[in-house]
Amino acid sequence: MTSGAEETGATLPVPSAQAEEVFGDSLPVAIRFAELLADDGVRRGLIGPREVPRLWERHLINCAVVEELIPEGAEVVDVGSGAGLPGLVIGLLRPDIRMTLLEPLLRRTVFLEEAVELLGLDNVTVLRGRAEEVRGELYTDFVTARAVAPLSRLAGWSLPLLRKNGSLLALKGEQAEAELAEAEQDVSKLRPSVCDVIRVGRGKVDPATTVVRVTVTSDGGPSPSGGSQKKRRDGKKKRGRKR
Description:
Helices cover 37% and strands 21% of the residues.
């Protein structure tokens, strides 16, 4: 079988010293995921072929360093997971956390399910759906998202899923401060919260990864800690697949 990288003439670079530092013992799994993205990810249209040569710095390491903001044993929901960036990357790096990859499109969830099985990630679950559809059913400590939607819209989808003191971690670009300034008033109306912009992975990825963090300061609904994601996982097979 010809890989997506070969079809486009792109070469998947070997992991850098920074990749070895960031992923540590998880590097072999990260390499396998990088190969999968460069092959099936390109052929299935989940990433562009031009992204293959810069998969490590621009995508994998860029996503992985967000784990610095997630404490041990946390529950995380990755909204609009797409090709697994950042959710699957964080999940493979942090076996201590419980990661749910929430994605509405069938072809993407099929890819994610295959990737999770191939990589043997027992702590990662794939759930097909939109954040609006699981409101009131799924509660979590953190929501992650990358290139999903403008901040005000993303917060509208994500904040209802968070427990008190939980945080939305939105990976953003150079205009993060400006985007936050424009959206902060709307975000505060959704749920009482505090917002800041953080740069993580300094010295590991250049430029450092910019994260807009929105931490809610009020209860979002009746959710005993640790039970909501399990309930959702147990019931996910009862939902029909949408086409």
